[in-house]
Design brief:
about 230 residues; OB fold (Dihydrolipoamide Acetyltransferase, E2P); 2 domains; 5-stranded mixed barrel; 4-stranded mixed beta sheet
């Protein structure tokens, strides 16, 4: 039994922590996102990068000997740390890579349920996110994020996405939200969200966007008032 969390401290440092067996069973319900904790009696090991979207070179591991306590909120610790990059810059990144994005949801598909060849049940939802670079990108949400009520995606809400996995297929780029990432709808406390919202409502919603999730040999600009190109 194991579950993992991403920790942020008052200096802005981030690190992944994994709790195993007795520690996982004892503390899973306790460790609520957005609350503050003290954690003792863990060990440090090199980070397993394929399981983490964080940049830290190390990670923490806790077993039944750990001591984890919820403490009062600390105003000096932010809710999330983002290194936001413009969607336009995604076209120049080496792939595969991880990126933080803050933009407006311009369209959202209905969730789709399917099974893998191994018989595992999965659910996904595709959304298109645009920002003030004048570009938009297709991002696939999985699991609980995909199952959110469709009303959460209506009305062009601003969304902050941490740890979007960028991939390329046939010369076009798209993103996938891994379980380890974070998604925050309407993050009004973020300066990046305030900037994107101002762009959107001051004319961005009438702008023709360059859609980077389509091949350069196909249509790459679309009208927000029409269905996304397929």
């Amino acid at each position: 039994m194991v579950f993992s969390v991403e920790l942020l401290d008052r200096e802005g440092g981030e690190i992944r922590a994994s709790l195993f067996n007795e520690a996982a069973e004892q503390h899973y319900d306790l460790m609520q996102c957005g609350r503050c904790f003290t954690l003792c009696n863990g060990i440090v090991r090199p980070a397993q990068k394929k399981y983490s979207v964080l940049k830290h070179g190390y990670e923490l591991v806790f077993d039944g000997r750990c001591q984890i306590h919820m403490v009062d909120d600390d105003a000096d610790i932010g809710a999330v740390r983002l290194a936001v990059q413009k969607i336009a810059s995604v076209t120049q990144m080496a792939v595969p890579s991880s990126v933080d994005i803050c933009g407006v949801i311009v369209s959202a598909e209905h969730p789709q349920e399917f099974q893998t060849k191994e018989g595992k049940a999965l659910v996904k939802r595709e959304i298109t996110v645009a920002d003030d670079s004048g570009h938009s990108v297709l991002i696939t949400l999985w699991g609980d994020r995909a199952r959110l009520d469709s009303r959460e995606f209506a009305g062009s809400p601003v969304v902050a996405l941490k740890g979007v996995q960028v991939k390329e297929w046939m010369s076009c780029r798209s993103g996938s939200m891994a379980e380890a990432g974070s998604m925050i709808l309407n993050p009004t406390f973020l300066p990046e969200a305030q900037r994107v919202a101002a762009w959107w409502y001051k004319g961005g919603n009438q702008q023709r966007l360059t859609y980077i999730s389509h091949s350069s040999s196909q249509l790459v600009v679309f009208d927000l008032h029409k269905e996304r190109p397929r």
